[in-house]
Records
---
Amino acid sequence: MTQLPATTAKKLGLVIDLDTCVGCQACVTACKGWNDQGYGVPLSDQSPYGSDPSGTFLNRVHSYEVQPEAGPAQIVNFPRSCLHCEDAPCVTVCPTGASYKRAEDGIVLVNEDACIGCGLCAWACPYGARELDAAAGVMKKCTLCVDRIYNENLPEEDREPACVRTCPTGARHFGDFADPTSHVSRLAAERGGFDLMPEMATKPTNKYLPPRKKAAPDEASLLAPLLDVQATGFAGWLDRVLGKI
Amino acid sequence: MHPAPSVIVFTVLSGLGFGFLTYLNLGLILPQGLGGFLAFAIGYAFAIGGLIASTFHLGHPERAIRAFTQWRTSWLSREGWAAVLALLATAPVALGAMGGARPGLLGLIAALLCLATIGCTSMIYAQLKTVPRWNHWTTPALFFAFALTGGAILSDLAVLSAVLSLGLTALLAVAFAQGERRFAEAGASLASATGLGAIGQVRVFEQAHTAGNYLLREMIHVVGRKHARKLQTIALIATVLPAAILLLLPGGLVTVLLALAAHLTGAFAARWLFFAQAEHVVGTYYGKR
């Protein structure tokens, strides 16, 4: 059913920390790896070893340069995937009911058996979260690893999305935003988590944390720890005596 | 957006077909006997031919029947219903017309359903906030204008066709002019897309992938915009030309066909641009439009 639920019991989603993401692409690889063998048809590649390779991915990591008014530019690595929006425009446009948002946990999913591959949902998404699989002819999107997070056959520490589990810097966090005491809710509140493209009025569940303010480079020289030499032994005694005269 | 030939053919031809059927259902022209059969057959052929063309871009056309289920929220589903109902409601009107009967109330209902179909088609595009150029009143206005002008030309209503052609050209000029401003008006930018605008000026440092992907092919398709200015001029000239042809040349089949050819040239050029020039906001993530 493509009518959005009025409310969802849980609001499962991700917090993505732009301060700690190093752009290693591990989440891209882990996502592709897990979703190649789990929920739905595999994420196909076209001509992967040819001159014009192409493929379906549910997660992409961009790199941006941000130039403040004063000071040096900074590089921000920027993972982009489905935000599991509360007002998901991709769901309401679907003519077949293949796209839906779950009332129990807010995950936006595609029933691939009902998808006609018209591509209208991908047009309706501002974030480029949906890619039509060229081999299967159906729409693929992030499932929030719905086949991991409730999977009792996996060890408990693995019951989170593959991207979160694999992130080596802890830049990705998974949890329930409907619970104000959950660590994702607290992270978003404490660090000023924000929505992408708020002007599109999609009410994304996923929140992004802004890069922390860095010290100005002229205040903190990279060599500072090396220059702060503490004299020891005879030189140290001499230093103390001379200092008292 | 990628100007898929199947979708361009679908929107132009089915629009023309439903536009023509609107005139026939309203009884604005009353062809009888074999003429009536031919007229309705032409209307049906354009409408159904267009609808069939639309299934060519589907990943799974064999499941198309499922598209009738979500009419509560989906304009694409509503369009399917409106098209089927319009074609069903037109059938008794067509049979009556062949026997010499006037369309009456049933004709009015069928005509309204034809108009509803055109409206639903236009709303598939106009509803998308993500494509600011489409998300504007000119989109439904243009779809109606193209359908009703083409329908009037096919109906051989010379004066009405000429007036509608002039109106269509003016509307097209307005749509072309405002289209350039729509992206900025919608407020989408790399700053809002990344949320990093508060820190400073954002630019793409490194693309997320070195190869192409579905998003770049489908939504960030820039190749079709190459000759946009020339195509706009062609569209504007071709849509206004039927007015001159119908008012200056003597009436008859050849004149109608000439006017229709000019109108369709304009319609195809304009519809190509409708897709090729439309920028999707996802392009901002790639530093493109």
Note: The longest helix of chain B spans residues 158-186.
---
Amino acid sequence: MPIRNPFRRQPSTTARRRILPFLATAAVTAVALSACSAPTTAPRGPEFFDWSDVQVAADGQTVKLWMWGGDDQGNAYVDDVLAPAAAAQGVTLERVPIADTKDALNRVFTELQAGRTTDGAVDLVWINGDNFRTGKQADAWLCDWTGLLPNMAAVSDTDPLLTEDFGTPVDGCEAPWHKAQFSFVYNSATVPNPPTTIEGILEWAEANPGRFTYPAAPDFTGSAFLRSVLYSESGGHENVPSAYSDEAFDELSPALFDRLEALTPSLWREGSTYPATSEQLTKLYADGEIDMMMTYGPATLTALVENGTLPDTTRVLTVDDGTLGNASFFGIPSNSGNIAGAMVVANEALSVEQQVAKADPTVWGQFTVLDLDALSTADRALFEALPQSPVVPSFDVLSRNANPELSAEWVPALDEAWRTRIAAGQ
Amino acid sequence: MTLSTSNVDMERAQREQRERRMPGDAGRPLSQSRGVMRTARIVSTVLVALWFALPFLPLVLWSFANSWSAPDVLPMSVGTDGLTAAIANGAVAAFGDSLLLSLIVAAIATPVGAMAARALSRHGLPFGRLVSVLLFSPVLLPPFAAVLGINVVLLRAWVPPEIGVILVLVVVAIPYTTFSMLVAYAAYDDGFDEAARTLGATSRFALWRIHLPLIAPALARSAFLAFLVGWSDYLVTLVVGGGQLVTLPLIIASSASGIGNESSVAVLSLSAVIPPLILLGLVSRARNLNPGRQS
């Protein structure tokens, strides 16, 4: 039961480490190859007149959902809750567990490159951020299909978290699945008076040397931490333009890296080394080596505390300046052979029953993408009746003052600058 | 009187049969170490065994640990949560897929390797050196580049993913089976086949009753290597398989990329280690299959 989202950048285990360089090569190769070949295959739009067309076409289809498989709760939710609901509508849902979402993209790119544009092996992918942008640039996603889904009616069409995915316009090329909120986590037994701002967290770290660290960029969580501190150092997210420009970067990033440089000697092992992944960070916290950590998947904390991986005095820290928020989505590759079936699954996943079940911390604890104000009183009551987690506050508390994500171009620029300024200066 | 003599003769014949050494049989050691050397030998054997076995200790402990965090030296609570989670993750189906895939790869790569090795072991083969280089090239090529490239070709040729995985893995396994069979054929005496033919055996009879039983231990060894190629493969199954085959390594890799899954990953890893160990035990006991036996 991990603290991880599907858009992770790095496989983390020693078993996978051998393959890492290969995967990096593959990602680069696939992007390069797709850049040459993709324009010849324009993305297909929906061929369906209305939803009943889709339902008729979907009946009897088998949908392969490729999703990051490192989350036992997520796997169990898909197998035991979502798949039976899809089966009731005549769609067989099969989960393909992958160690990295890029594996699914690589498969799609290779198929498109080989001219296999109608019978791809990937029907549905759990995706967001960088992977979505990469696929969109290569025209690998089916677009303009989410408007057909009846359950999209309960999704707000003005929510910036759902209309833009890390600055890339969604444009009906992916259907929302759940929301995530970047969260700082502390052990209330060892941190009795937790700070209330991000600057306060850094000051706390300096007052308690060796008890704080963050994953090395370009780990997804580590790089979200860089963006959080960038907002904080710039005096709030309003002061950082979402679209990337060299001018904005040169103006705003020095304050971030000066602050991190000053922080380094107070980090775990004096900043001589950093955990490579958010899993390693969580492990340090679980083993009591540090007292504070961060995650982009607070939903899974409840289960990790319950099964004893994390101490039961673990609490999520809500900060006044707010934290980054994002959503993750279902994407349908343009060459899927089971587009209708994939749409039925994406629609079913957006139903009130599924979103409520998924939001239950004992099932998966993922925050809903539905607009609660748009729901009927009875449906809203279902969400309000969900068991409260002793660890994680409810989403409206957690997402108070939520900060929008920066556009995806910011991410590699900040990661690279961190690598040359902070990691190289060890 | 005559009866007892024939009994003695038969016993002697049976004893000779038991003691007859055939190619592939283990020989008797020329000398046994004694005294200090013997102690050193035993100690070093134990150390090497420990070196191999110790990494499995945490794996076994984790398999049955429901919770285990530092600084505890042993799991805090013991149970079968890991097993339950592994099964929920599809371990049983993945185990079946892995087994089927590995057996098919071994069943194809072993005879192909044996035939290639037999041809190569005869000098006079035209372009023999070139054929050797070609056969061994899969070992030399960087696997990822080769697999990614071949996948495009397979997709363009509309080869079903399952068939594609088998084809590629067989090619990867052939160098190993060929090499192990080359060693066996280097020590093989063609005289056995020739004697059988001289005595009137058809070539088919000589193959099935003389040749194959004599090289059976080597065949078992190379089949084991080919099995391992299929059993341990991650890359080809992932890239070429396109999600049609979800084998144990795929489940292990995806499971291990999260946190809090340590005990289910340990169960999965153990279940991936055990079948090859069992096979290794069987292979190391393999003897030639009593050549010349009439049925």
Note: The first strand of chain B starts at residue 65 and ends at 67.
